[in-house]
Design goal:
2 domains
Length: 350
């Protein structure tokens, strides 16, 4: 009888919180759909292991031959972690159990943090696997092929859709705070992956290689219609994303037809550009102004002062001896961005 009454109370509480309960149900359904697709992709990679291993070795000579087994293990962990957090939130919304405060704090602080770390590993340590799918499974972006031949095709952006939707889930249901979203993108590998994901989503959703004609990612009209956590990113994180995009564009613009945009292609000529060195150079005025910073030309941002030697270093890294028309346009876009957001005065030193 007591259990029956508790059950009725739980249902009543869920009804009072039906918006959050419905959101959890929607996330669970979407995750389940993507998990089926990702499992098929892992199976496809396993069937083509010889070709996959060769492609991975070419892309990353230090990669491990155990990558496939590790990605499956990590994928299983992520699924279980999502299930735990979803069920915990349902119990709290239904007031189903009286959880001691210290246990509740331990769960709500450690479990989301562990899931974030798992997601980061999933997409950064296995990005070469997912690139194999995009390069080896034709077409790369199949939405526009469905109606042509009526055949099922793997959707190769699913692993990234899944990973970034998890961050949306954690943010929307208050497992992580807004400022923690920015912390996720302190790692250059995560910045590279969000850039790759955004470029490929634009390409897929718009139906053409729109990145070739763009001077930024985060001001594009399609940006706000993608992931919820994008709106939680500060100017600092947005600057990083646009910087990495523009340098990646410079490295990819003269690629072979059908080549995959990859922000890791950051070698200008034979020199890798250490863009991470310039991370964190954009700061808002609501923070303390440190020595060496000055007001920027647009009034509400501040910039570190680069000495002429450092500006020459940046120019030397980014300007190759020869470049065609398309690469010249990329260079103009990149230096215009750096002039405004990172390094005022760099254009006058060209």
């Amino acid at each position: 009888m007591l259990f029956h009454l508790k059950g009725l109370e739980t249902i009543k509480n869920w009804d009072l919180n039906q918006d959050q309960v419905a959101s959890l149900r929607e996330y669970a359904a979407q995750f389940a759909e993507w998990e089926v697709e990702i499992q098929k992709q892992i199976k496809w990679l396993g069937k083509n292991k010889m070709n996959v291993d060769r492609m991975i070795t070419q892309a990353s000579p230090n990669s491990s031959p155990q990558a496939l087994s590790r990605v499956q293990e990590l994928f299983n962990e992520i699924k279980e972690q999502i299930k735990v957090l979803k069920n915990m939130r349902l119990m709290l919304l239904g007031a189903a159990f009286d959880i001691p405060e210290e246990i509740f704090r331990l769960i709500t602080e450690s479990s989301p943090r562990n899931l974030v770390q798992s997601v980061k590993k999933f997409i950064t340590e296995n990005n070469h696997l997912f690139n194999c799918l995009a390069l080896g499974f034709v077409p790369k972006h199949p939405k526009f092929q469905y109606e042509k031949d009526q055949q099922y095709r793997l959707y190769t952006l699913t692993p990234l859709d899944y990973a970034f939707e998890i961050i949306d889930f954690l943010l929307e249901h208050r497992f992580i705070k807004t400022e923690e979203v920015g912390n996720i993108f302190q790692d250059k590998e995560m910045v590279e992956q969000v850039v790759n994901y955004t470029v490929r989503r634009y390409e897929n959703d718009l139906g053409f290689c729109s990145w070739k004609y763009m001077s930024n990612l985060t001001k594009h009209w399609h940006w706000q219609s993608m992931n919820k956590f994008f709106r939680a990113l500060s100017k600092k994180e947005l600057d990083r994303i646009d910087l990495v995009f523009l340098i990646g564009k410079l490295g990819c613009i003269d690629g072979l037809p059908g080549a995959l945009y990859d922000s890791e292609v950051l070698d200008i000529g034979d020199r890798p550009f250490p863009y991470e060195k310039y991370f964190g150079k954009s700061n808002s005025l609501n923070r303390l102004v440190s020595p060496g910073f000055k007001h920027g030309p647009i009034g509400h941002w501040i910039y570190p002062e680069f000495d002429p030697k450092e500006k020459d270093e940046i120019i030397h890294h980014l300007l190759s001896k020869r470049y065609g028309r398309r690469k010249l346009i990329c260079i103009v876009d990149l230096f215009a961005f750096m002039e405004e957001e990172f390094c005022p005065g760099i254009i006058s030193q060209l």
